[in-house]
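ok so for the tutorial part 2 we go from a plain amino acid sequence to predicted C-alpha cells. step 1 is just haveing the sequence, like this:
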Amino acid sequence: MGAAIVTDSRLSNHSELGPALGVVSRRGDAQLLLGAWQRWGLGLFDHIEGSFAFALWDPTEGRLVLARDHLGDRPLHFRADSRGVAFASHPLPLASLDDRRADLERIVSYLAIEHESGPASFIASVSRVEPGQFVIIGPGEVRARAWWTPSLDPLAWSRDDARLAVRAELDRAVRDALDGPVIAAQLSGGLDSSLVVESAARQRQTGQRLVAITATADRRDPADTHRFVDEAAVAADTARGFTGVEHLVTISPAEPPIAALERLFPSTQRPLLNVCNLGWMEATYDAARSVGATTLLTGLSGNFTVSHEGSSRLAGLVAAGQFVRWWHEARAHRASGGARWSGIADMSLNWAIPLPLHRMLDRLRHGPRESVPLGFLRRGHPLVRATLNRTRHTVEDPRFRPGDDAALILRELRFVDLGLANAGVRARFGLDPVDPTGSRRLIELCLRLPADHYFHDGRPRQLARSLLRGRVPPRVLDERRRGYQGQNWRHGIELGRDSLIAEIDRAGADPDSAALFDLAAIRTHLINWPTEGWDREDQVQRYRRDLIRAIGALRFMRFVREGAS
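step 2 — the prediction. this is what the C-alpha cells look like for a chain of 565 residues:
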C-alpha cells in the first residue's frame, strides 16, 4: 500500500506542479500533494504554493506527517498519547470527553497579548501544528520542525525595479484567486485593500463580476475625532476609478458581543482576537454571500508587506552617519504632517539608548503604563505570575533598531494563528477568505527590501503609494489617520450589559474562571459604565481591549466545558 493523504487546501501553482509531476491538475490538490511527496519527500514545501493543511501517512517509514502553510491559513490539530494519534482541523473533537477544558496557560497568554507560539492549542491536551511547520509522528517520536525560514538578506535593487517586482508578485497572487463567476473583495479607505481591488479589476476575466464591499457602522461615536471612522465615501470614490467594479456598502448594526461570540465559537473554537470588529466583519461576509461570491479578497497582511512603513529608516541613516540625508528626511517627514520633532528624535536615536533608560524616559513622557495588559486577571494566580515574570525578561523592545525591519515583519506576521478564524468563515458563510498581500512569494520579496524602499521623501508606506499613484483618489494616498471600522462597539456593550453581567455571574460557578479572573472587577466595570472620558485612549483600551477580551475568554471557557449549549 502506498502513501495516503487528506488535505484542506487551495494550492495556487497547479499549472507548474501538474506538468512537473505528470499529474493532471484538475484531479485536485490531494493528488498533486501526494505526487509532490513521492517526488521530493519533505522537500515538497519548496515546490508548492498557496494555503494548505494536510496529513500524510507514509507506510514505508511508518510515520505520519502533518503540515500547514507559511501563515497557517488552514488549521490542523492533533493529539498523541498512549492510546494512539488522532488529528482534525478543529481541536474540540480531539479533546478529552471526561475532562474537557480550556488550556489556562494559553488563555493567560492571549489576554496578555503575547505572540502565539508553541504547539499548545486553546484546548487542554490538544496540540496544533504551527504555521510554516510540519510535525512528524512515528514510533516513539513526535517532532516538529519549521519548513518556512525565508531569507532576510537585503536586495540591492533600485526602487523602480523593486516596484515592478512587487507589482508582478501581487498581481500573480490576486490572479490566482480570481476563480468563479463572482469575486467579492473587502474595500476600506486604505492602501492595502485598494491595492488588491485595483489588481483584481485589471485582471478579472470578461463577464466575471467583481464586487467591492465596504462595511460601515450604524452610528458614529462623537468622541472619535482623531480616527478615520467612516470609509464608505472614500471607498466609493476608489471603486468608481476602477473599470467594471461594483461597490456595495453594508451597514453593521451594534450588537451585544456575547451574541456574536455564541454564533462563532462552534466554528472557530478559539478566543477571538478583536471582538469589537466582529460586527463589520460579519456584515462583509453576509454581503459577499448575498452577491453569490465564494471567494473574498482581503488585504489583511498588507501592513507587513507591500504597505510596510519602513519604521527603521531614520534610525538607519543616523547609524550610517548619513546626517545630511537624515536631516532632509526628518524635515520632510515633519512638514508632511508626520511625527513631532520629539517623536522624530525618538525614531532616530532610541536604538542607541539602553533599554532600561529608554523605558525610564518613556515613563517620564507618558506616565506609568502597564507593560503587559492583564485583562482583569488575578495577579496572584500562578499562571499570571509566571507570565509577568517571563515578560519581564522577554519584553518587546520598542526601539527602532537599524536593519531590524525584516525580522519585525516576520514576527508580526506570526503574531496570531488565523487558521481557525478563517475556517469559521468558510463553515458559516461558504466563503474562502484569500489574502494576496500575504502570499508566500510576495512576503519573501518584501522581507528583503531595505527600509528606504518603504520610507523616503519623509513619508512612510511609499512603496504602496507608488503602486497606487494615479489609480486612486489622492486622499487615499494622503490619509494618515487610522481606520476605525468597529466604532459602534460601545453601543453594542451598552445594549447587552445585562447579558454580559449574567455571563460573569455564570463564570463564578466554574473553579478555573473564579480563580483566574477578577470577576468582581469585571462586574463593577460593567455596572459603573462611564458616560464620559471616551476621548482618552487609556479608557478606550481598558474597555475595548481588556474588558471585552476578558469576557470573551470567559465565554470561551464555558463553551469548551459545555459545548454549543
